[in-house]
Amino acid sequence: MLSPLRDFLDTEAAGGALLVLAAVAALVWANSPWSVSYSRLWHSVVSIRVAGHGISLDLQHWVNDGLMAIFFLVVGLEIKREVTSGHLAGRRAATLPVAAALGGMVIPALLYLAIAGGTAAHGWGVPMATDIALAVGVVALAGAAVPSSLRAFLLGLAVVDDVGAIVVIAVFYSAGVSFGWLLAAAIGVAVTVLLRRLGVYHLLAYVVVGSFVWFALLEGGVHPTLAGVAMGLLAPATPRLQAELIDAEELADISSAPSARATSELARSSVSTVEWLEHVLHPWSSYVIVPIFALANAGIVVSTHTMRAAWHSPIMWGVFVGLFVGKPLGVLLASALATRSGIADRPDDTTGRQMFGAGTAAGIGFTVALFIAELAFTSGTGPDGRAIVDVEQVSDAKMAILAASVLSGVVAFLVLRARPRSSRTR
Description:
Elements: H1 4-30, H2 35-42, E1 45-50, E2 53-58, H3 59-85, H4 91-116, H5 132-142, H6 148-172, H7 179-197, H8 203-220, H9 226-234, H10 248-251, H11 257-269, H12 273-297, H13 304-311, H14 314-340, H15 352-361, H16 366-376, E3 378-381, E4 387-389, H17 391-417, H18 421-424
Antiparallel strand pairs: 1-2, 3-4
Helix pairs in contact: 1-5, 1-12, 3-6, 3-9, 3-12, 4-6, 4-14, 5-6, 5-17, 6-15, 7-8, 8-9, 14-15, 14-17, 15-17, 16-17
């Protein structure tokens, strides 16, 4: 009843357009006569207090730490679906995208370290990320010239890339860890597993437990968006009712309100929780949350001073070269090693040029790269124990991310749009 891959790709392609519009709006706003209002809005502190306990974060951190948890929940759901029944199900099917993703993470990180090592070495994780929405959007714009096997390869690569980004965030960009709160988060995850085993399907129960895990990770010094990933990976991947056991006539009965409700429940039970949640949440993630994230984080002040500073910044060149050069280089090298060694096959009906186009599209690292940049470049901690962002370093990194993502997108579109000579002469 749901076509998860087509649904996912269509939503990502359209969401990519909104993401670009939001990023452009942020840039225009931050460089307009009303730039002060941009900074004032996203640095406004919002507090929530319940039973004497509260959280105080500025609006930008509510977006980055709160709303993005839903984005990473969708990422976790997509990873779960791809591993259980998608393009990463089975060793042979997963080998090429996994190898390509690893190459596309290692080479950019090494190039970054070679250019911007030393005091800025902690930013090596920034050029590792691939933005699924924009990469899929570029492939969609290229149209029928892109074979479906290459689309599936790029999606699998991007999913594995997300797994790598999650590991990097959890291990390398979580500071001041409190093991007491981490234990509390682990208990919350255990409760989720217990609820699954007891057959509890009420969504509110998992929202409450997931919110507790998010709060425990926030207080424990681990980035709270990982709570979304954990809940997504724990979601059941098999439906409660097998399709062949459902009466078609009963499913089609909407003659009365009770019958319609029963039909809705049957339809809901015939698909897995992973597919259902992804179907419900993915549009909100792509059309609302990610554009808001871009609006909150892409507002870079572009002036002769900032451009001159970025031009001489090793961070800027490390991130730019890592994304624009390192991504396609890593994807191509790893893919070639995997196929020539015989452990994987190249996607059907694809050429070396198209593989290069897919690797270049992977260099669009917008959303997650911006996210990691906010975590990587800090200048100490504030009185509340939270990291203080180094504005200049983050600005250099963001400028590189924007430039590399735009150039990668343009080059990938031009390469993928061009049909092979053999197809032109048919």
